[in-house]
Specification:
6 strands; 126 residues; 60s Ribosomal Protein L30, Chain: A; alpha+beta; 29% strand; 6-stranded mixed β-sheet
Length: 126
Amino acid sequence: MKKQVQTDKAPKAIGPYSQAIIANGFVFCSGQIPIDPATGNLLNGTIEDETRQVLKNLGAVLEAAGSSYDDVVKTTVFLQDMNDFAKMNAVYAEFFKAPSPARATVQAARLPKDVKVEIEAVALVR
């Protein structure tokens, strides 16, 4: 059995997918990009600005699912440019405390709306 998660505190899905799905005690969060959910506008800033907005959006989805950053077990980070890794990682560390989730980070040829970063997550639901 699966349950759709939706919140107005994160950007609406812009295609045939859900912000997140709860199944078997886990929440599977779709990738978030740096869109301000209040305005619907894309944040075009530094990698730090974009990462912070992405993680705020991800946090809103986690909260709507009954989860939190502390419950995240796995993330995938997609970067436009792997040279931004250290700067993204510094912001990421502000949101995820030890024990940090497992993570993969990859450079993508192109991300939605040409953003610098997209992050997806899997977390426990409490």
